[in-house]
Amino acid sequence: MSAVAAPRVGVIASSCANLFSVEGALRAVGAEPVWVREPRDLEAHTHLVLPGVGAFDAGVAALGEELLAALRRYAASGRQMLGICLGMQLLFERSAEGELPGLGLLPGRVERLPEDAEHKVPHIGWNELHVERARLASAGAEELWSGVADGAHVYFVHGYAYLDATAPWVVAVAHHGVPFAAAVSRGNVHGVQFHPEKSARVGLSLLARFVALRPLAARR
To answer: Which of 85, 123, 158, 176 is catalytic?
Structure first.
């Protein structure tokens, strides 16, 4: 019997990405990550990870117009896509952190987390997730979140977040002074504000389920 090939997952290799830790986590769940720098390289992959650290405008600029356009075409093709931390924020139309437009794959604007004596910004450390089970089916995220229990803890490092926790594409919520979107999904486009590569068993199990997701039909 021939061995099953490891999933080839593209990882966007921009200057605003924590590539090595994401690559290591994907290898740990049996994937074969390949760094992607050029738009033409997207065609080889059925799964794509968009990691990111730093500021919104710097993240947009690091991708460049050609790759941004290619990412929009990739998402429209129905292939699976996952944004991590800043990569999740780049899925939205815009951010209060900058002036440049994001990918626009999700509507809305990312905002700065409010700060008070108890809740410092940036929000750094482990925090509890509440999975919005009633939204998973319509968001296309049942399979991705099937193994994550309410109250699971994951690791965050961020000062900005999408704050409309009631939006239909918000599939997991965390609290840091206010509720915010810890994860989003709309069809084949997914994002997590936390770092799954730093979130131990919960994060690795989520990555394993992501690389097992099947592509959806292309959008017209």
So the answer is: 85
